[in-house]
């Protein structure tokens, strides 16, 4: 039986030098060190920070925020979502400190649910986590493909100047190409990925700094402070007039951006002193994203003066709001929008890094989940190459993410449901281990070096209730009257995933899946 007592950082193997504290804890949990432990706390933070990428989340879902509430949804909604996101991140960091493994959420659920419920708890958590992560990768790289489409459109004259408008088939081909590049990069040694991850973090911070200064400075027309802090847009054309209802949907932009910080937990088997540095990575990624995101939202929104024209599909950017803001800011001042296109390229590079880190996170989750035998062909997906990289898991993640994006060929509405699934699915996976921590494991949970002390249970309950709240709110209809073209398919997608996971468990999984399996 594996002991639950936390190892001190100075554990020493007989006759050998002290083990890294994360390595020591991993051994106590029953796992061999198979991945190369080469990441510093900065590198661990960088992976989560680049996945949470402000330039990715805010830019690609800015239209949703403008349509549902506008500036008020951005400015105040960001703070509301940020506060609750940190409340979710804190108990996750506490659990990560106790169980620093690449299994992350599903492993935590197994250990916290107790022997009786461990197999099913880890099963449902793991599947929601891995599918949510694949949805994130699909949506991020599809967003980059869409941005490239807009950049090409503006570079060739814009929609009103005879610019080239790529078809949905060109967009999906671009998406596939981006995923292949990300697969190749993620097949390289972790030391290179660590370097690229740090570059991604720096690029995101500098990109936000440049854009928040340049765009308002270049714009010939700027919004007033009153507009930025008090304007509430109700002209959404969706048949919704209730201000609270509109405001709720405006929160999706913020919540979508503040997603993916579990990457720090998934990278713990490759992080030095993971029982300390994993939690630091989670909390710092969320905290810095909150601050950087606030400045980016303010900077861009001060350049917004006409919401209706920005959302109009007949403008030069084809209705891509932020692209239109950048393009028109330079065009009105200098006579052409080239500078705006350069600004979009800055955003595009950030999205590329975000997708790269997302594939890294996906592959580590798939590696750990298959190591415990939960996935079909598990023996294949958890193999590592000579560089100690789970290369088959990398290409599995790339392939599944591409297949998810194929839904855009049939209905862009269905694909947007996939984006919502990326948010709700991941947060449901976040909530499971926290729920088990404050219920079944309340009395026997043994904290690691980072812990919330007596506040752990209270914070955990608030986190669970927040996830439950957004899962309901983001499943509500976003347009009235409800039609097949305007239906919010998010609850349908979540219900299908839940049905699949539970059915698979009842029919097959319960007979052979016993939860995390030690390999020492």
UniProtKB/TrEMBL annotation:
* InterPro entries per UniProt: AA/rel_permease1 (IPR002293), AA_permease (IPR004756), Amino_acid_permease_CS (IPR004840)
State where the protein is found.
Answer: Membrane
The UniProt entry's GO CC annotations, sorted and at most eight, read: membrane
Q: What is the lineage of its organism?
A: Eukaryota, Viridiplantae, Streptophyta, Embryophyta, Tracheophyta
Topology term for the membrane? Multi-pass membrane protein
Q: State the name under which the record lists this protein.
A: Amino-acid permease BAT1-like
Transmembrane segments annotated in the record for this chain: 41-62, 74-96, 169-188, 200-219, 244-261, 282-304, 339-359, 392-415, 421-440, 452-476, 488-507
Recite the UniProt keywords alphabetically.
Amino-acid transport, Membrane, Transmembrane, Transmembrane helix, Transport
Signal peptide range in chain numbering: none
For this protein, the record's PROSITE patterns field holds: AMINO_ACID_PERMEASE_1
Native organism: Vigna radiata var. radiata (Mung bean)
- Gene symbol here is LOC106771621
- Molecular functions per Gene Ontology: gamma-aminobutyric acid transmembrane transporter activity; L-alanine transmembrane transporter activity; L-glutamate transmembrane transporter activity; L-lysine transmembrane transporter activity
User: Which superkingdom, per the lineage?
Assistant: Eukaryota
Protein family (similarity comment): Belongs to the amino acid-polyamine-organocation (APC) superfamily. Amino acid/choline transporter (ACT) (TC 2.A.3.4) family.
What Pfam family is a match for this entry?
A: AA_permease_2
Primary location recorded for the protein, binned into one broad class: membrane
Q: Give a yes or no for keyword Ion transport in this entry.
A: no
Residues forming coiled coils: none
């Amino acid at each position: 039986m594996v002991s639950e007592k936390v190892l001190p950082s100075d554990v020493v193997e007989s006759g050998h030098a002290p083990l890294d504290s994360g390595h020591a804890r991993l051994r106590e949990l029953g796992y061999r060190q198979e991945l190369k432990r080469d990441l510093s706390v900065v590198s661990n933070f960088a992976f989560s920070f680049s996945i949470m990428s402000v330039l990715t989340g805010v830019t690609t879902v800015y239209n949703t925020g403008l349509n549902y509430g506008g500036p008020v949804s951005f400015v105040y909604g960001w703070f509301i979502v940020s506060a609750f996101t940190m409340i979710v991140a804190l108990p996750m960091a506490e659990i990560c400190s106790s169980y620093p493994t690449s299994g992350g959420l599903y492993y935590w659920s197994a250990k916290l649910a107790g022997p009786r419920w461990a197999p099913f708890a880890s099963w449902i958590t793991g599947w929601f986590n891995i599918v949510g992560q694949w949805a994130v990768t699909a949506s991020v790289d599809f967003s980059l493909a869409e941005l490239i489409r807009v950049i090409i459109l503006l570079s060739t004259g814009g929609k009103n100047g005879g610019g080239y408008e790529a078809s949905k088939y060109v967009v999906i081909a671009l998406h596939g190409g981006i995923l292949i590049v990300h697969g190749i990069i993620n097949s390289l040694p972790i030391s290179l990925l660590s370097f690229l991850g740090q570059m991604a973090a720096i690029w995101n911070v500098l990109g936000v700094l440049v854009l928040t200064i340049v765009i308002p400075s270049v714009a010939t027309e700027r919004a007033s402070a009153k507009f930025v802090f008090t304007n509430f847009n109700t002209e959404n054309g969706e048949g919704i007039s209730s201000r609270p209802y509109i405001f709720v949907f405006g929160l999706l932009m913020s919540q979508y951006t503040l997603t993916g910080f579990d990457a720090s937990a998934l990278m713990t088997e490759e992080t030095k002193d993971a029982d300390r540095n994993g939690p630091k990575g989670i909390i710092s990624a969320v905290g810095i994203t909150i601050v950087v995101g606030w400045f980016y939202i303010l900077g861009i929104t001060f350049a917004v003066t006409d919401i209706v024209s920005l959302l109009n599909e007949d403008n030069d950017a084809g209705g891509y709001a932020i692209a239109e803001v950048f393009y028109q800011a330079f065009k009105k001042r200098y006579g052409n929008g080239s500078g705006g296109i350069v600004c979009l390229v800055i955003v595009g590079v950030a999205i590329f890094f975000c997708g790269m880190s997302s594939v890294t996170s996906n592959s580590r989750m798939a590696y750990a989940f298959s190591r415990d035998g939960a996935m079909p062909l598990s023996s294949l997906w958890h193999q590592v190459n000579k560089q100690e990289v789970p290369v088959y898991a990398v290409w599995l993640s790339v392939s599944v993410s591409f297949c998810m994006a194929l839904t855009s060929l049939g209905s862009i509405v269905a694909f947007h449901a996939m984006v919502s699934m990326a948010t709700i699915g991941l947060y449901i996976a976040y909530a499971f281990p926290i729920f088990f921590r404050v219920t079944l494991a309340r009395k026997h949970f043994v904290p690691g070096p980072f812990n919330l002390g007596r506040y752990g249970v209270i914070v955990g309950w608030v986190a669970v209730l927040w996830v439950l709240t957004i899962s309901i709110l983001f499943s509500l209809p976003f347009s009235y009257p409800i039609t097949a073209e305007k239906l919010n398919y998010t609850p349908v997608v979540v219900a299908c995933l839940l049905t699949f996971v539970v059915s698979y468990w009842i029919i097959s999984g319960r007979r052979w899946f016993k939860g995390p399996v030690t390999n020492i």
